[in-house]
Design the sequence.
């Protein structure tokens, strides 16, 4: 199937994998996925495994992402990691505003937009996450919530920066629950997000932005989700932790 945008599949390992486990997985992925050219493949290990994974994927078709970064460049910010330090390990992507960080670290749209701008300035590609909770969906507020997150967490980006940015629609109720949004539910929100992007930056730019779906993506639902016109990839949690399931998702997305 020909798509207007290149599919991007990213594995968000969250707070999992020792260095040894991380290496084991990426060695396998490197072997299994060596022939894939049609998909941008990204792994996002915890900070502690970035250096080893970076070396293990050198000269491969697998790219490296981080799961968060500081909005600041350097200084007295205990426990934080800035873009420049990520770049030391050839990190190319950074997940920003994941719902777990919005919930547990109280990250808000304004902070996420500052991080996105900092990432882009440092030539990192942000993967900016948005998505409604179950309560918000059930009370009919999905579009309102997602629009506010898009406008807020991408505030101030130029059209050129917007084009480079990857978005991830991750309905909170589908994360780690085994409940996937149906492909029709995903498509509906993805098309809506593109409409919001068009209002902000014009049709041309909106058409170029890749929007991933995330939330219980597995090998057996990836194909159906990817077949939707506005679904341009996946941000995978649990199923990215195992060689078989992640490589099958990548293969099934082509
Ligand atoms: P699961 O794939 O485990 O539902 O997690 C999705 C996610 O949060 C990816 O960022």
Sequence:
């Amino acid at each position: 199937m020909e798509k207007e945008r290149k599919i991007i599949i990213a594995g968000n390992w969250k707070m999992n994998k020792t260095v040894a486990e991380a290496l084991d997985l990426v060695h396998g992925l490197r072997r299994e996925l060596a022939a894939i050219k049609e998909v941008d493949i990204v792994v996002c290990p915890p900070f502690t495994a970035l250096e080893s994974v970076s070396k293990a994927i050198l000269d491969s078709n697998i790219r490296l992402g981080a799961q968060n970064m500081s909005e600041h460049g350097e200084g007295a910010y205990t426990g934080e990691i800035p873009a420049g330090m990520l770049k030391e390990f050839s990190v190319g992507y950074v997940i920003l505003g994941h719902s777990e960080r919005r919930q547990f670290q109280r990250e808000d749209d304004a902070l996420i937009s500052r991080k996105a701008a900092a990432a882009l300035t440092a030539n990192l590609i942000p993967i900016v996450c948005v998505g409604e909770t179950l309560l918000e969906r059930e009370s009919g507020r999905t579009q309102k919530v997602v629009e506010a997150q898009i406008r807020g967490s991408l505030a101030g980006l130029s059209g050129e920066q917007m084009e480079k940015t990857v978005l991830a629609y991750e309905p909170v109720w589908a994360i780690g629950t085994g409940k996937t949004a149906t492909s029709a539910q995903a498509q509906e929100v993805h098309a809506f997000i593109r409409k919001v992007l068009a209002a902000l930056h014009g049709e041309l730019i909106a058409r170029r932005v890749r929007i991933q779906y995330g939330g219980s993506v597995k090998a057996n639902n990836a194909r159906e989700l990817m077949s939707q016109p506005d679904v341009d990839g996946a941000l995978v949690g649990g199923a990215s932790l195992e060689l078989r399931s992640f490589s099958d998702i990548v293969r099934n997305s082509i």
Observations:
- Residues 12, 98, 170, 175-176, 214-217, 235-239 surround 1,3-dihydroxyacetonephosphate (CB under 6 Å).
- The domain at 7-252 is CATH 3.20.20.70 (TIM Barrel).
- The chain is about 45% helix and 15% strand.
